[in-house]
Design goal:
By secondary structure, the chain is mainly alpha-helical. The chain has a two-stranded parallel ribbon. The radius of gyration is 32 Å and the shape is globular. The two termini are 49 Å apart.
Length: 338
Amino acid sequence: MHGFFDVVWGLLLGLVIAVVQCLYGEDFDNWIYSGPFLNVVIVTLVVLVLVRMHPEPADDCPCFDDSVSFSAVFIGIQLGAWHFVRSGYSWDQPVPSTTPFDLEALGWAKNLARIMLGIFIVFTWRGITKPILLRILPPIFRVIEHLGLSLPRKFFLPATEYKRVPPLRKDDNVIPPVSEIPRMITSLRHPRKRAISIGPQSEADAYEALAFRDSRRRQSLSSPSPPSGRSPLPSPTKSPTEVCTSPIDKGVASSDSTGPGVGVTVNATVEKAIEAADADSSDAKDDHEMFLRLLKPRVRYDVEVVTKLIVYTGIAWLSVAGNAIIFELCGLGMGKRP
């Protein structure tokens, strides 16, 4: 799915982000913790603009979905940190908005209970919020589209072209539904051997294969013919006129001004052209079969983008602030400030 160009620029981008984080990360965190809620709104708007500016992928891949999930988690973390530092349950050391925790003071029983309760809350939030959003957002999106304010994206069906979003399966690459957890545990205990995939696995791979084939063919047609002294001679059983199979070839071969051996050279060029034409007809059939073998992605709906933003923002807020507050209220927290 990713080529060398993607890997190199991804490496450079990650390096730049790491340097900025090391130099200005603490100042940014303090700006969020100690500032007004307007600071969180500004960060949220910047992230949403970046999501809208995300380049269109070459094919229907989860690149955009993963970017939306990551951006939503970033928004939720900033919102949760800003809220938790003002909740009265956080510690200020070693940094503001620290979740109170001491393994020895809490004990293993409480820690296991915190883990199980936290996982349950996250899956419950996702299981309840996502269906509700997929039901209430399409009418809102239709109104927005009629007002001409929609921002359509490639590979996403606009709300005006469907009535309702059907139940979606395997629609999340980050957090699976609860029903998939037993199967995932079984696959970890008894992993299957990875199958070897042969041929293009996506539309981007298919188009890349077509481009490579066309490039090789152009190089073959444009390559110069071998010198006349080393050119393959016609069979002794054939006359020179039989070598030139077309009137054009005969006319060129019989011209004294072109010199000896030109008939053979022109004939080789014509044969290359005939072979290329035959290959084109054969390639058209192979190309059609290749695209038919590709796994067809499911229909994706425009409301899924906003749904993913809200769901993952909530998950990040729960992880940073919500669950920690619930633990304190349920008696699973430290119960005191340091």
